[in-house]
Structure formats: C-alpha cells, structure tokens
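Data availability (excerpt). The following record was deposited with the supplementary files.
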Amino acid sequence: MRISLTAISMRDWLLVAALAMSASAAAAQSAPGAVEFHVKPDGGQPFTSSDPSVRPQLGRPGKPQWATGGFEPGFWLSTSGSAERPFATLYQAQLAVRELLRTKGMPEGGIRVVVHGGLYRLTQPLEFVPEDSGTPDLPVVYTAAPGEKPIVSGGLPITGWRNLSAATPGLPSAAVGHVWVATAPEIGAATLDFRQLYVNGTKAVRARSPNGDDFHRMVEWDLVNRQAIVDSKDVGEWRNLKRVEMVLHESWVISFLRIESISVEGPKARITFQEPERDLVFSHPYPWPRNTDPYYFANALEFLDQAGEWYLDYRAGLVYYWPRAGEDMATAQVVAPRLETLVRIEGSVDRPVHDIQFKGLNFEDSTWLRPTQAGLVPLQAGQYFVQPAYRIQGGIPQQPTLDNLGWSARPPAAVYLMGASRILFERCTFRNTASAALDLHYATSKNQIVGCVFHGIGGNGMQIGRFSEQGLEAHLPYRVADERELSLNDRVANSYFRDCGNEDWGSTAIAAGFPRGLVIEHNEIVEMPYSGISVGWGWTPQENAMRDNKILYNRIHQYMQRMGDGGGIYVLSNQTPSEIRGNYVFDLRHSPVGDPSSMIYLDEGSSGFLVKDNLTDRNVFFKNRNGEGNRWENTGTDGPLGLKGAPGSEGAAGLEPAFRDLLQ
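Predicted structure:
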C-alpha cells in the first residue's frame, strides 16, 4: 500500500497502516465469527518513541518519498486491539474498524468495539463518516464492557487548588478564608475560557447577584437610546465590567447580555449592552420587554459570596471557588469543559452514515461560548436570534396576519448527527453539557434513542429536525423537494430526562423543529425550567414538511419551574395528521414572571392533532390561534387513571418496566 504524504500527515499514515495490520490480524483470529476490538484508557498509545509497542518493520527501514522530499515511514504499531493488548483511544478503535471494513469487508459475525471503564478525554471531536458504517443486519457496535462505565469527556481537569486566606481586591470580605483558587487550564498559550464548572460531577454556580432564586426587577426600558434602566442600588463598581452579564428573564426565554457601560443618575442606573446583543434585544417583538422583567447579574468576583459559587478571572488566568459542605479541594475532581462537540456523525443525503450502535457509553463536559463572545438573545426552545427581528404590517403572501419577522440559529450539541440513518443510542448517559446534549439535525432517518439518561443539560436534552436555521425565516413553512433532507421516522423511547435547560432556561427536554414520523414515547421528564416536550416550528397553519408525529405515554412533571407561556407538551403549526395520546402530565409549577402555562398547549397554527386519553392533575389547556382538524377526546383530570400508576409499572405512562432502573 502506498499513500502520498502530500495527502495525509506522516502520523495519520502510520496510524492507518498500523490499524490495517492489526485489524486484519484480528479478523483472521476471529473468522468466521465476530471481530472484537477492545479499548482501555491505559491501552497501547500510538506513535511515541518510548512506546515498546512501536517497532521498526524488518527489512523496510524506510524509503525516499520524492513528492514531499521526506521518507515513507517504516514503523508499525503492534498493538492489536485485543483484550490483552487493547487500544488506548476510541479514535484508534474507530480506525481499526474502518480499515477492517475497507480491506476485508464486514465479517460474518459483525464488529464490536468493547469500551472498558475509565475516562477518555478528547482533544478534538470524534468524527464518524460513511466509511465507518455497518449494515442493517450487522451494525458496528460500540459497547461498554459489562459492568463498566466508560466516560467520554470534553473537559479538562483543574488541579493545584490553594486556600485564599488573605484579602483579595474585589473578593467580598465574607469569602476570605472560604474561597480556593487555582490556575485555569491553558490551550496553547491562551487561558481556557469556560462558562461551567463541575466539582465531583455537580455543576457549580457561576457567581451571581442576587443569589439563588432571587431577582432584581427592571425599572424601565429606554427604547430610544436602547438602554436598560435599573435601580442604582443594584449595581456597583465591578472589576472586569465587560465580562459581567445581565441575565434577563422574559417570559419564555432568558437573554445573556454583556455589559458595555453603566452610568448612575441618582436613584437610577443606565446600562448599555455590547453589540450584537444590544441590537437584538431591542429589536425583537416577542417576547416583548416589560418594566417588571426579573434579572440578575453574573460573572464578577464581587458576586462570589456563598458556597457553591465560582468565578474565572480570564485576564489573570485564575479560577476561584467556594466549596460546598463536604467538598475537600485536596481530592475534589474539578472539570472545566473544553470541546463544544464530542462526537460528530456526519454523512450526506446521498451517502449517509448508517448502522452504528452505541451502548452504555457516557458523554460529558461540553462547552458553549457564544453567550461570552456575542451574547445570547433567544427566540424559543433554545433557538436564538442572529439578525434583528422586527414588526411588520400587512403580513406576507403566505400568511397575511403575520406581524413580525425573525431569523434564528441552532445551538450546538455534545453529540451531533447529520446525514445519518439507523444509528442507535441505547442506555447511554448524557451529562453536564453547556448546550444541547444530542442533536438529530438534518437528513436523519430511523435513528433510535432508547433507554438513555439526560441529566444536567444546559440546553435542550434533544434537538430533532431543522428549525429555521440556514436562512429560513422563522414563520415560513419548511418544504423540501427531496424528503431525505428531513428528520424521518426517528424515535425517542424509554429515556429519562432530568434537569435539562439549566443554562438556557427556555430549553426543553425534547425540542423538534420540522420532523416527520417522529415518535416520542414512554419517556420520563422531570425538573424542567420550561416545557417538557416541544414539537413544531413556524407558527403557521400552512401545509409544511411535518406530519405523522406521535407523542405517546410520556410522564411529565415538575415543569415550568422558571419560565412562562409553555406546557408539559407544547406543539405548533400544521402537523396533519399527528397525535398526543396516553400522556400523564402533572405538577405544573409557577414561573417567577407570573405568565400562565398549561398542561397541553396547542399554539399558533396547530392543525391536525388528535389529543386523546391523556391524564392531567388540572384542566388547564391552551389553544392559541389554532388551525383546523384538531380533536380533543378524554383528556384532563377524567382521563385514564391507569396512566397514573407507579413509575415503571405495567400500563403506566413513562418508562416501561424493563427501564425502571433508570430512575434509581
């Protein structure tokens, strides 16, 4: 085999050649059955001169490579990926699979990659391409070793903590002696910037004022000068002012607004925001600004005044943290997220990635820095404005009653799929992500998410199908000439969503844009700041790409804890025919903004829904500007009482008995 070094690096050439050899050997040992590769964190590392597994190939010390003026390498990696000589990284195992498929084809018994327990820290996303695919009968399986817990992390550890016993400029006097400080991680010569910190797996609180669930209240909005006016006693002379954010609570969204300047005028203070969020927050008509909007300030050392709070002094490269009770900073595992996306599964409409299964893997510690770099002004369900939205009169030809226009973008996800078919995530865990956890974006079909856990998610637990990114105005119906571009017949079942949307409170457990044939069934959804399930986009009764969606037998409770104008199940636009059936929705909370919410909410343009046999603990339902063809049957407090059975019991909404262990 000859590969020009003008096409790939020497390191990559070595890896491809070595894994081709080890994969062929593994195939020979396992034929005619399955081929199995193993991965362990302490397995054979590739291409280090001190690694005894790297040996020169006898009789081939290297030869000139005239195209580059260098030498074709003459070294091979002897680690085979066997249980006795495992690979050290998922990337090594992935290339072993790819080379086996390329050189030998799919073995008679298929391919399994056994991932052993331990921590796999990624320095760049793990990317799956069409050449990594299996077949419908023999999918490639990446599975946790029995009884073991492999963690795929996009984070970096922070060590070397020391107690801050002396007064420090900006640090509240009450914090002296309680706060610990460490040097922030560096990437190259730059300090790592991050917005989340995890201590022993638990998210710490970015220093804020006021604390907890308390808020300041707006005094008024100066729309002419595009400034926020607040009570002057709520502001101070904060160091690193341009790193301080005003976190504004507006009904169903919160905005992260970086401060440019503050000017005090007696009892009032004028706050000017940085661009582009200044333009964005003063332009969008929905949700409208109100003089009583709650808000808090975040990200100043001056706010670090209670246990569990932290602050990154980016200029000085220092991290400050006040430990919670029982946390020992000498032994605590402290992690800052580094990578925005951990895994990308990306094909195309014509060449999808297909037939790969992930079982029992844990994905953790992803970052998202847009709010730090450009602020964040959301539209809904985690989708955020990228151009100023504005009021219009006279509507548009497709929708004469429309009174505003807007364009939005899609937040990132820790695990991202595009051009992917028959991908399975089974009993995987997604935890501690800054934005969305799992995204089935574009040209996805027949993918299944079964028995997974989503916990401590900053944005949406799952995002499915296109919304209005890529230049589509938010109120226009999404229509396609090639239906393969859609999210088609994907399924989310028997999964447990808890504490999603803990960064962007306007996010949901499951948010779907324009899906077709989507099935969301038998999931448990709890502790949500906003809606539990949101399906639909466009705010239009016009025919569009959506239809045949089913929201079945889900158990949704403790939702709307922070936001307003939502529901346990929220849908919009024409989805004829679709159904909402067999769900148990209860324990609706009351938002601090006071905006009412509901159990099941059919918002603008909702058409073609059968809402049948759902049980709720209150008869609170919203129907806003609905289209035609909606039918409501046997839904409310008199719905089927059997749905209320114990979680995981036969006949109850929520997890089916085989998945009851996820609640433990």
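Summary of structural features: The CA atoms of residues 285 and 505 lie 19 Å apart.
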